[in-house]
Amino acid sequence: MPDPSDDGRSNPLHWAWRTASRRLEALLPGDFVSRWLTVSEAEVAEILEAVRQQLPTTEALLVGKPQAGKSSIVRGLTGVSADIVGQGFRPHTQNTSRYAFPSEDLPLLIFTDTVGLGDVSQETSTIVDELTEDLEENGDRARILILTVKATDFATDFLVQVATQFRQRYPQIPCLLAITCLHETYPNLENHPPYPPEIPELERAVANHLQTFEGVCDRHI
Are 197 and 182 in contact (CB under 8 A)? Predict the structure, then answer.
């Protein structure tokens, strides 16, 4: 059971979402739900546009190999199930797919996932060009680049290339290095250590990634 005295600030992401939810409720008319089935499409569009103006969209650009934990990051930020996340992503360009949360009509968060990274048939410059074109089309949107790499994966040269080219074009967009799948270094998967785990293999892996992406990413988690 959740602690009713907890205002959510112990979990910044949860607190931010609760705050956004309260603001959304305050913006909607009091009888909005009861009127939803009777209002015209034009009225609905007008209300949603007013809400979007008050709650602008933030886009998270997820750059990483398949199975690197990108979907887990989306689940952690939104609180939705794996099935919903998996079904929510829609093709966007040749090398990207997109998931709007909580809905396409009212996207408070948009997750843009790079598809096929690590495929030798995909040119790094092509992926960067697609991301750049999308950024130019929606230049007023707040964005963050989340570079996702598994703790045990050291074949990351092309990720460095993508991130470097991207940061050269858009130095104002912050870049977060997310080191994932830490459990693959745990000696006993059934007994996870406290976080952050003090495991020599993991500490060496993290240090290696921090050195590899030094000067490319602003922060890491």
Answer: yes
pLDDT band for 208, please (50, 70, 90 cuts): very high
* Residue among 60, 47, 68, 117 at smallest CA distance from 89: 60
**Nearest alpha carbon to residue 126 among 174, 89, 161, 175:** 161
Strands 142-150 and 90-93: unpaired
- What whole-number distance in Å separates Cα of residue 171 and Cα of residue 24? 32
Helices (H) and strands (E) in the chain, counts: 8, 7
Q: Which two tokens stand for residue 39?
A: 């209002």
pLDDT band at 2 (very low <50, low <70, confident <90, very high): very low
| Interval 139-167: pLDDT, tens | 667 888 999 999 999 888 888 888 888 88
